[in-house]
Amino acid sequence: MENFKVIYRILNILEKAMDYDEFDMNSISAETMKISEARWIKLMMLLSKEGYIDGVIIKQSLDGEYAMSVSSPQITLKGLEYLEENSLMKKAAKLAKGIAEII
């Protein structure tokens, strides 16, 4: 579950960054997300592979190490859709919780 929270935070930050010309990588770093570097790289790989973000290239060397190259990361349309769907699900969950408390 924690992975999905980090994914949502990364996508949310990238969505807000659309208003700016330059992006600060520190805003989505492993340290900022409070996760290990290895987990951060794997999550970034997943986001890139699934088409939620662009501008991130991750390569694996023969010895299994990962190298990441970032050139202006950006959220994609698919990433925006993910944010929208999850926002609506959170609102529905809060509404359902409120109804359950009333009953």
UniProtKB/TrEMBL annotation:
InterPro entries: Phage_Tuc2009_YjcQ (IPR018597), WH-like_DNA-bd_sf (IPR036388), WH_DNA-bd_sf (IPR036390). It comes from the Bacteria. This is YjcQ protein.
